[in-house]
Fold each of these.
Amino acid sequence: MKALRRNKNILSDNIMPELRLAVRQTAGSEWWTHCGWIALTVDGTKMDVPRTEANENAFGKGENDKSHPQMMLTTIRHVGTGLPWDWRIDPARRDERHQLCEMIDDLPDRALLIADALYTSYDLLSTLIQSGKNFLVRIGSNVRLLQDLGLVKRQTNSTVYLWPKYLQENYPPLVLRLIKIKCDKGYMFLLTNVRMGCQLSKKDAAYFYEMRWGTEVFFRSTKQTLERRKMRCAAPEQAMLELQGTMIGMMVLGLMSVRGIIRRGKDPLEWSVAASLKVVRRAINNFRQKSISLICELGNCIKDQYVRNNPKEIGRAHV
């Protein structure tokens, strides 16, 4: 643990760039998700840490006095492969949007960042635009948009402006495009800075946003399948290193598995974390015995395809 604390900057400065390069190389044709876009989703989740005085002072308590201290984990995930691209770990009181701002510079060119309504803020979206990044975010009823300001030459019915009243004296409006998608419960509204329909059609926007579900599956795999809903270290710095190691382990396991799945011509989004864990653990326990390539075995770790009559128990879910 002392060695990890002493060399923790190596993780961000050396290891993470190499892992992101490995994601690009492993993805192959799956790197370009759809219509020339590299689709990435962003979302956050809270991770519990032991209820110690040091952790409570560093992280603060959760939503109520009885809850554990918590860390905020915000993760960017590559849609085409389901692999994590980048993440940030902070005390749970830290805003997910601020964590995302720290990861913007490491987004690849032609990235389309997909997010839910939590990420609809003037500061964040203006930062993405200034950085030359594209986004697709859902908006809620609490967001007020303006129309017909006449500030752009090519204005269509879908042209809108995000310009909070308290910023109007000192900051310009954000010129965006509003996409209205019909869904089961009525309509969903998406906001993007890709203003040309030929670059991002309504159909493609609906498809991309639907792919956000994979991030929830990823978090469930981390918490349940890897049994990391709660960290075990009683000190704050060690707990953060523990979660960092968990994420790197998940990424490396995913890289090996997805590489084998793609070689078999299968969909990498069918990867089963639980099956991969069994293969790796069996290989560790029987390392003296000759066996087929580990990558080949991991290439068979896909979710089962049979249709269930009853839902699985949460603790036994295949991911």
Amino acid sequence: MKTRNKLLTLLTLSTGAATTTAIINQYIKYSAVSKNLLMNPEAHCYKWRLGNIHYVKYGKGKPILLIHDLMPEFSGYQWNDFISILKEKYSVYVIDLLGCGRSEKPNITYTNYLYVQLLTDFIRSEIGHRTDIIASGASASFSIMACSLTPELFDRLLFINPDSILSNSLIPGKRAKLFKFILDTPIVGTLLYNIAVSKKSLEERFSQDYFNNPYSVKVDLIDWCYESAHLGESPKSVYASVQCNYTKCNIVNALKKIDNSIYLIGGEYIDFIKERFDEYKKYNPAIEYAIVPHTKLIPQLEAPDQVLKIVDMFLS
């Protein structure tokens, strides 16, 4: 009888803790999106087979597609400083990737090939012309893969701080699969995700990893990222897939195959950035690159004027 009572007590406490955690998770989500900062009345919707894709289009001329880094806190907002300049010469398309920003966020495993398909389908359906690409961070890898598979859709390629060749080659291991299993659980996994994308965590990432100068990180930038990371059905799903290497892909053969103009832009204070770019050149000697002084992972936000000068030079 005592053992039975202990088990009932433990079950009651566990159920109560789970209920409390679920309520906390719901409150975090509600408060994070309550400001509605990312609403854009000029937005378009591409009804893709795995979910609706949010994008905006500005200007007239040769098409150029801007692709944000593949993390749940990022969206097309990452390119706001670029739009007003580029739209004077180009038809500028700015996309929120599936699982990110204002696009749908289905509870699925996100892979590199999923984004290859999204990119090629989007260009065919919504742009309809050979397109220049500017992609940031991890999004460079699936842009390279898509270009190698359907070169007729792509023109010039510019990548900002793309992942290293080695990083792109990582695959999900046993620990990664276990971690993803935990993240996929509805209560504990959501709590872990909320901790990972809390305002404090985002502030630390921006001040330590994303920006070289932590004092240039604006409060509204954190608010934008915080909202982006909590919008939608299952924002944690893309986070789990990225963290566990499901979005990685060996790009070496694709890099060798591509005959397009490729330009790389790097932040000066990214460790071994020149060595990383030289490795890209090893597989495609035609690649050129530039380093943006006093920046880190996201120079397009930290020093947009400097990056725009390089972009204009490359596209001219």
